[in-house]
């Protein structure tokens, strides 16, 4: 294997709090002194998220508003208030760090109607004078459109909590994801007293590239524009087809699909077409992150795994998430081996190559969020040489395992 660096465009926000404050001041929201403001927060692993949320809280307090934080999540955190607050806590968002209450409930109230069905809003947020949202805008893992994953999705799945998540994912099957998210989101903007949406775009290195706030009137156009920016910044694997992808870790904090389907080219949603790019013969997933809380949604996209990963799975949380999304295949377990070495060797044995150790086209990554540095097999070096955005960082070194058969982790940036 040879270490390779991918050179992506790298716009970065250098002063997170100042940028957040400036865009909030300029967005034209209608929040005024004395307003209670429910700040909806995400279950994703977003760069600098705690700093962005804290700057938002401080900005609202400075104008005399009374903010509180709530988890704008559907079925994540096991679909319980305690689980969802725990997810936020792991991202550094809690009452101690933010200086405001963090409140969670799974109760919802109806605030409107879309596509012939109720539109639901978390009960605590419904009682506030204004509802505000903070989320990353990025390509969705299940469908392609002009609005995908971001503020509109949070207004739909997140504000609807578990009850809404179940209903809307079934609506997705009948009406398509984009139609459902757009229609419900517009009803939320009309009925739910949305104060502003704060959109975050990341670059290909999992860094904050852009922060921009939108008033309710400008939110839809703003999200559509930022999605185009996010797609331009999207990190991808550099080869259109290869034999084996070794993924050291997967989890909900990495991607809503466990492994970002935009990276691995495998859909988690069977109801809509999704580009098969890249075409990977076999995927080996070795471990779950701690911050996924046992939720192994997306393990069904792997072909080989390990017993250590399987033993970390909370199948109840995984099934709640997969069934809410109408994607039961995301919870299917691939063959599980005692060690990393055995799982990887099994993938090699199924390539059909006469000399797989020499000829297999292999890519190794930490996770699908961190692909600025990867390892590739010698068989891919001719492809590396043809791509000017790839920089070879060293000489070939054998995959290294410890005495227990565990793969020695990638040390990124060394």
Molecular structure report:
There is one protein chain. The protein is built from 15 helices and 15 strands. The model has no long low-confidence stretch (mean pLDDT 94). With 414 residues, it is an alpha/beta fold. The chain has 2 domains: 218 residues, LarA, N-terminal domain (Rossmann fold, 3-Layer(aba) Sandwich); 157 residues, no CATH class.
Q: How are the elements arranged and paired?
A:
Elements: E1 2-6, H1 16-26, E2 36-41, H2 49-62, E3 66-71, H3 81-90, H4 95-98, E4 108-114, E5 117-122, H5 123-126, E6 130-136, H6 151-158, H7 161-175, H8 177-191, E7 194-202, E8 208-215, H9 219-233, E9 241-247, H10 261-264, E10 279-285, E11 305-306, H11 307-311, H12 315-324, E12 336-337, H13 340-349, H14 356-359, E13 362-365, E14 373-376, H15 381-385, E15 390-392
Parallel strand pairs: 2-3, 2-6, 6-7, 9-10, 9-13, 11-12
Antiparallel strand pairs: 1-14, 1-15, 4-5, 7-8, 13-14
Q: Compute the CA-based radius of gyration.
A: 22 Å
Number of domain modules: 2
Q: Main β-sheet, in a few words?
A: 6 strands, mixed
Low-confidence stretches: none
Q: Helix tally?
A: 15
Mean pLDDT, rounded to whole units?
94
For this structure, what is the CATH class of the largest domain?
A: Alpha Beta
- Corresponding CATH architecture of the largest domain: 3-Layer(aba) Sandwich
